[in-house]
């Protein structure tokens, strides 16, 4: 599911070096900043503009001190 559109070209390719996209994780394109959420498990990897989309780092939550 795309959560933020960008100008890039999204494709799904065969499994890469790090394995398939992980269910429930967000991925973001480094060039066009398109963001997607993996909502269905599979064997592919989502690519944007010819490169696999890297995992988006989780935001840190403020402490409850």
List the helices and strands in order: EEEEEE
Question: How many independent structural domains?
Answer: 1
State the strand order across the main sheet. 1-4-3
β content, as a range?
25-35%
> What does the largest sheet look like?
3 strands, antiparallel
Radius of gyration: 13 Å
Entry summary:
By secondary structure, the protein is mainly beta. The chain contains no helices and six strands.
Fold and architecture overview:
With 65 residues, the protein is mostly beta strands. The protein has one domain. Helix content is 0%, strand content 29%. The chain has strands spanning 2-4, 10-13, 26-28, 35-37, 45-48, 51-52. The chain has a three-stranded antiparallel beta sheet with strand order 1-4-3, with no helix packed on it. The protein has a three-stranded antiparallel beta sheet with strand order 2-5-6, with no helix packed on it. Strand 5 (45-48) and strand 6 form a beta hairpin. The chain starts with a strand and ends in a 13-residue tail after the last strand.
Q: Could you give the topology of this structure?
A:
Layout: E1 2-4, E2 10-13, E3 26-28, E4 35-37, E5 45-48, E6 51-52
Antiparallel strand pairs: 1-4, 2-5, 3-4, 5-6
Task: Pick out its properties.
6 strands, single chain, globular, mainly beta, 65 residues, three-stranded antiparallel beta sheet
